[in-house]
């Protein structure tokens, strides 16, 4: 996807690095109104993982309200009441796995938008940040 | 929910105190000498290095530092104690103190790295273009460091009692003295190196103790985290409240506490500064992931310690009389030493019990160091330099910073002699303060460019009233007037001092948004600053968002920051250099 810069003609005179920074400095930052394709993609990842996180963190305790017997009388792994095991072990693990997932997704977005954090970044000729998206 | 604990005196307790123990004492002494040595070896003179370690730390090392910085006496000692005494309610601490890192990761970590200033008040002052905002933030930072550190001082005193056989008070004074000395000596670079070492020590001590107890008592074998199920049932048979979901507090109390600890995680200045110390934003993200992993290693074991410790206490001390209620129940002081007490009751050799105690000292010391660094930079950088004397020299800043460490250290030691609550509860109050005051301004400041200075100031003041009011209401005033009850019991129910952020955060968010809408928009350069924090464009090691937002991207490399990289990729217009950031 690195060659689709056709929408960028008005910036064609500049090299890409400038386009990226300049473009971002002109777009409003509002978490509910992503103004650039990158922000849109990034926020999609953020909101999806945020919802998953809410379920992982507050789900078990909330479930006790609705199914107290199931949550407290089911035992797993030789004696743990289900709610105790979920809160003590599974919830921290869930947050950890979600974090790994988010960081990997964010790295994938970096690749998609041609961003490199390496010290010797070769950035000439990579994609413009605001091109690329249909 | 919060009871003032009796003044801590050397009373008869199940923990083996009152006798000097040579091997444990040598372990602690060796550890402290190591820390001081590392601190001395990496001692610093430049301001950049004192506060952000030259922005040179990698992701695993920073992850370990996040872990050590994070896992204080409250995590190491306090959480197991809270789970033992409050059962399922105590697990809200486990959940709150681990899962908050995810919110920090997705919403704040990388943006903070891009913002790239020195301290939390710096962020508030620059983002909200106001010295008033900066001043309020600096005050809040000091208040958080102070509240948080009291819990650490208390943990140090308890451990010193066991290890050195000295009184609790002497222990607090001795170990706080060491902490103050080494922070003042080494600064942040030294403490980052130290924190990685401290993490290794504390996690080995904690895990070794857990494995040894589980193995020697026949509770568990290779993976105690998944094997303490039958001990949980046994503990529940002795004390039903151990697993009863809402025995200690209702659903609201549980959620309010977990929520407060989560947003507090995202608002703690000494946690945020860990993102300023890394090379780039990708490192900021991955070090958060590593940090959470390292943190989970300890937290997965806390409930196991609570179950093991409860059973052993029931067998050895009360002989079937229970552990959290009834005659001979664990007092606050014993509960707070539960992790060490468990290893002692399991008849493990003295050196091993001493090692576990030494790990607790490392945990308390690492966190206190991080807190004191943020407090000193808030005082020297944000209050002294930015508000009082613009042209302060580096030397003056260092002096003010170190004086702050001494002053706040002395005050913490004083209050730590007679702490007003359990370790974990004290620290939770610091989180409620951070969550109510800082989280909303950090979050909106980064994600909504129209947040104005008036909005931020009004929001922070509202947060101060709510969180401090809650603590005064149910802890501070009752403690110092000798009354058991909260001043306003209804308020204490809905707005507990440890959990005020569940109500506080939405209120503060609304205040900020309403006031921001009613006042003039922030200036264009501030908006550009916010946008720069979200640009996907990589930034160079020593750059902050301000450099780029003001000069369009070119900055010709601060003294040592990887200048080979950036020149190639930023075409440029004007090249007025921004101020050099290091003086080496």
Automatic annotation (TrEMBL), chain A:
InterPro entries: Na_symporter_ssu. The chain crosses the membrane at residues 45-68, 80-103. It comes from the Archaea. Keywords: Membrane, Transmembrane, Transmembrane helix. Residues 36-115 form the Sodium symporter small subunit domain. NCBIfam families: Na_symport_sm (TIGR03647). This is Putative solute:sodium symporter small subunit. It comes from Natronorubrum sediminis.
UniProtKB/TrEMBL annotation, chain B:
The keyword Transport applies. GO terms for cellular component: plasma membrane. It holds the Pfam family SSF. GO terms for molecular function: transmembrane transporter activity. Keywords: Membrane, Transmembrane, Transmembrane helix, Transport. It is found in: Membrane. This is Cation acetate symporter.
